[in-house]
Amino acid sequence: MSAVRTVLGDVPATELGITNAHDHLFFRSARLPGQELDDPDAALAELRAFGELGGGTVVQWTPRGLGRRLTELAEVSRAAGVRVVAATGLHQAAHYRPERPAGEPARLAELFIADLTTAPVRAGLIKVAGDFHGLSPHARRVMTAAAQAHHATGAPIAVHLELGTGALDVLDLLCGRLAVPPHRVILGHLSRSPDTGAQRELAGSGAFLAFDGPSRAHHATDWRLLDQLTALAEAGYADRILIGGDTTTAAARAASGGGPGMPYLLRRLLPRLAAELGTAFTEQVFTGNPARAFAADWR
């Protein structure tokens, strides 16, 4: 049965509602010391603020080993009344301590599959990561494992693209050699490399394109976002677009850190997109597209 696997169980895709397609409630990284998202009360406040503006679902892309806090994730989801999708998978090697090697694909795939199918709180997608304009050996091992886990479970694969680059290499590996259907792949951070021609090519592959990161002050996201989304919509690819916030530091939270955080998507960004591109467009990218991108025929 096609459904979205949330931390509180499987739900029909039509019940997701307005969806933040890429964000973090819990996250810690060796690259961001002192900015951990590890406070359940702050996570609950942020999720409630999103829900109070009409948000129905948040997709957390925090993978294994980076403080997913799955038990607390289920607790804050239940308390806030907002659905949450968790991730398995692995990020770039730089986000982990040197003593934590990735392991071989077959063993990693076993861990990912367990997270997706038998864990007490289950993940609903697999997170992987590329590198700047290419793929490291670590990335290739993790993506190989992710493809194996996808074929075993049906789970979608979400890809961190470093500064929005390397997407064609990712698709060559995942959808070419590893035979993952393109519509099961979500390419993240496309707004960080605002090449509208390349974005149209990627959308034409059938993959989903995630535009995320209004909380990132050091990335030119918001001021170029409208042009990128308009170009895709005019080319007939509005059905491939997803939008998220990607809050990765405590300082970026709206409820406790100064913002803009999750609420910004619905308080400012969605109304602007509706005014410029129409309500049919915003309903598609915030509700209709996530329902297709994150649902799976779970095996």
From TrEMBL:
<dbReference type="Pfam" id="PF02126">
    <property type="entry name" value="PTE"/>
</dbReference>
<keyword id="KW-0479">Metal-binding</keyword>
<dbReference type="InterPro" id="IPR032466">
    <property type="entry name" value="Metal_Hydrolase"/>
</dbReference>
<protein>
    <submittedName>
        <fullName>Phosphotriesterase</fullName>
    </submittedName>
</protein>
<keyword id="KW-0378">Hydrolase</keyword>
<comment type="similarity">
    <text>Belongs to the metallo-dependent hydrolases superfamily. Phosphotriesterase family.</text>
</comment>
<feature type="modified residue" description="N6-carboxylysine">
    <location>
        <position position="127"/>
    </location>
</feature>
<dbReference type="InterPro" id="IPR001559">
    <property type="entry name" value="Phosphotriesterase"/>
</dbReference>
